[in-house]
Specification:
Shape: rod-shaped
Structural class: alpha+beta
Distance between the termini: 13 Å
Radius of gyration: 72 Å
Number of helices: 14
Low-confidence stretches: 1-21, 78-92, 127-138
């Protein structure tokens, strides 16, 4: 019969549409769920009470927690002094990045900082939430209590860097809002001091003071060595002295070249003048007297007159005339006497006066002057050559001394520069230590906890969570037991199987 009902049920469902078959199936499932719940309501209620009731009791009995929040900003207001012995003026500011902020987070969460806060708790500076003056009877017990306090602080303290900013948030949860606020404020104060200690220059002022004293002695020793060398060698300013010596050598060389040129010119002039003197005679005719023979002159004049008379007589008379013959005899006599006179004495007589050649004398005077000048120039050349050699030797010695002087002077400058550097660094270290003592750090507290504090827990959420957990466990347990119970439970199961 059951097989018959099952077959009829299957035949009847085949002729129905899909929508009509889906609706009865969903209603059957709801009916099965409700059937299970009503059937095993005692089990569901028991599981619900066992799960939800403890949660509700814990939520109602747990004391409220309050969260104290502080925020610190890592800024670049204070410049960190760069302790570098090769730079006199460099002061570098902090370049903020994620690693710098995370480093500050680790400083806040460091064991040393938490131990300082725990010491404040154990010494009675802070009270509340079990932190109080427990005494310090016995060092091992005190160390144990200190370790426990540090662990409790580390567990209750939350340090979180706020994303995309240079702000660090410090949270502390406690049942007493005053204690939570005091602990957070103490953590912030200790962090400021710890930051100054970590980033401060520890012992640098003493170090630079010792180095400054040593450098001061080195400066005095180097100055004394330079002064003794300058006094011993007679050097005041080697650079100026070398420039003067070089200038003197250049001037001496120029004068020597001019002297050599003058000597060469004088020698050439002397050679030319000597050739000119050799060409000139020692003496020359200064003047000459010329006289004509008066007899010859008289006879010549008379002869000329007679010849003129003959011409006039021939115009009047013939050649046989007595006047013409007498004239001819006179002319012949005069010619005879003239010839005799010319043969006996010259017609013209003269007298010469000789003297020294003035050109030769002038050339000789010039030659003597040139020889004197030449001897003077040669003496001047010898003097200039001696001065040039002496100046060159002095310049070589001066350069050698200058190297030693420059070395000593540079040593003085180096020690003095290092001394001034360390003096400046000492002042910077003093300022840095003063800033560290005053806790002038590049950390700004932008928020401190103030009462009243917000609740860190929500009882309603805890109660709802307990109820929801009980409801889920009860339903899951009910259906689990129902699933494990395999016998047929309804007519539908009979029809299905």
């Amino acid at each position: 019969m059951a097989g018959r009902n099952h077959s009829n049920h299957g035949n009847g469902s085949e002729g129905k549409p899909n929508g009509e078959s889906a609706a009865p199936a969903s209603s059957e499932q709801v009916r099965e769920v409700l059937h299970v719940l009503f059937k095993r309501w005692r089990l569901a209620a028991t599981l619900f009470i066992l799960v939800a009731l403890p949660g509700l009791i814990v939520a109602s009995l747990r004391p409220p927690l309050y969260v104290a929040t502080a925020k610190v900003l890592i800024s670049t207001d204070r410049a960190d002094l760069t302790i570098q012995p090769t730079d006199l003026t460099r002061v570098t500011t902090i370049n903020l990045n994620e690693s710098v902020v995370n480093s500050e987070v680790h400083i806040i969460k460091s064991r040393e900082l938490l131990e300082e806060v725990a010491q404040d708790l154990l010494s009675g500076r802070l009270d509340g939430n079990g932190f109080g003056n427990h005494g310090t009877s016995g060092r091992p017990k005190a160390q144990v209590r200190l370790g426990r306090q540090v662990l409790r602080l580390a567990n209750a303290l939350a340090v979180t860097p706020i994303r995309s900013s240079n702000v660090i948030q410090i949270d502390y949860r406690a049942s007493d809002p005053k204690t939570a606020a005091r602990i957070v404020n103490r953590v912030v104060d200790r962090y400021l001091s710890r930051h100054a200690k970590v980033h401060g220059a520890k012992g640098l002022m003493r170090f630079y003071e010792e180095q400054r004293r040593t450098l001061e002695e080195n400066v005095r020793r180097a100055e004394s060595a330079l002064r003794e060398f300058a006094d011993r060698e007679g050097i005041v300013d080697p650079k100026a002295e070398i420039e003067t010596a070089v200038r003197f050598i250049a001037e001496t060389e120029a004068a020597l070249r001019a002297t050599n040129a003058a000597i060469s010119g004088a020698e050439e002039k002397i050679r030319a003048i000597r050739e000119q003197i050799a060409e000139q005679p020692p003496t020359v005719k200064k003047w000459e007297y010329v006289d004509i023979n008066p007899v010859v002159t008289t006879l010549t004049e008379q002869l000329a007159e007679r010849q003129v008379d003959r011409i006039a007589l021939l115009r009047k008379y013939t050649e046989k005339d007595r006047h013409v013959r007498d004239n001819a005899e006179e002319i012949a006599e005069l010619e005879r006497r003239l010839n005799e006179e010319l043969q006996a004495r010259p017609t013209v007589s003269g007298r010469q006066v000789l003297g020294r050649n003035p050109i030769r004398e002038d050339r000789t005077r010039v030659l003597l002057e040139l020889e004197s000048t030449l001897r003077e120039q040669r003496a001047r050349r010898a003097t200039l050559e001696e001065q040039l050699n002496a100046a060159s030797r002095h310049l070589v010695q001066l350069r050698a001394k200058s190297l030693e002087y420059d070395r000593l002077n540079q040593e003085v400058k180096n020690w003095r520069a290092t001394y001034e550097l360390y003096l400046k660094r000492q002042e910077e270290a003093r300022v840095s230590e003063a800033m560290d003592r005053e806790e002038m750090v590049n950390v700004e507290v932008v928020q401190r906890p103030a009462l009243p504090l917000p609740r860190a827990d929500n009882r309603q959420n805890s109660a709802l969570l307990a109820l929801l957990s009980g409801l889920v466990v009860s339903i899951a347990g009910t259906f689990g037991v129902e699933y494990l119970n395999r016998p047929l439970k309804s007519e539908r199961d009979v029809e299905r199987y």
